[in-house]
């Protein structure tokens, strides 16, 4: 659950930074609200994600390498 609600300013676009790492997803919205949750990509009902009630204007994706210790 989000700790707080993100209220967009007039004419402000929703900008999401989404990080996926096997079974964890972290989402940062407009650098003001963040959330993290577990996902289960190996389940048979894990088919992807949808943009609901909105329009996707752009998408950039990068593959992250393994963390080096």
What is the fold's blueprint, element by element?
Elements: E1 16-21, E2 24-29, E3 33-38
Antiparallel strand pairs: 1-2, 2-3
Helix share bin: under 10%
Q: How many individual helices?
A: 0
**Number of E-state strands:** 3
Strand count, sense and barrel status of the largest sheet are: 3 strands, antiparallel
Please tell me the overall pLDDT: 82
Strand arrangement in the largest pleated sheet? 1-2-3
Outline, from the CA principal axes? globular
Report the end-to-end length measured between terminal Cα atoms: 31 Å
Output the radius of gyration. Answer: 14 Å
Structural class comes to mainly beta
Q: Return the string of H and E elements.
A: EEE
Q: Beta fraction of the residues?
A: 25-35%
Which runs of at least 5 residues are low in confidence (pLDDT < 50)? none
């Amino acid at each position: 659950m989000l700790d707080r609600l993100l209220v967009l300013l007039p004419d402000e676009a929703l900008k999401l930074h989404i990080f996926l790492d096997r079974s964890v997803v972290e989402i940062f919205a407009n650098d003001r609200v963040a959330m993290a949750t577990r996902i289960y990509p190996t389940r048979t009902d894990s088919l992807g994600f949808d943009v609901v009630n909105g329009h996707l204007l752009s998408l950039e994706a990068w593959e992250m390498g393994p963390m080096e210790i």
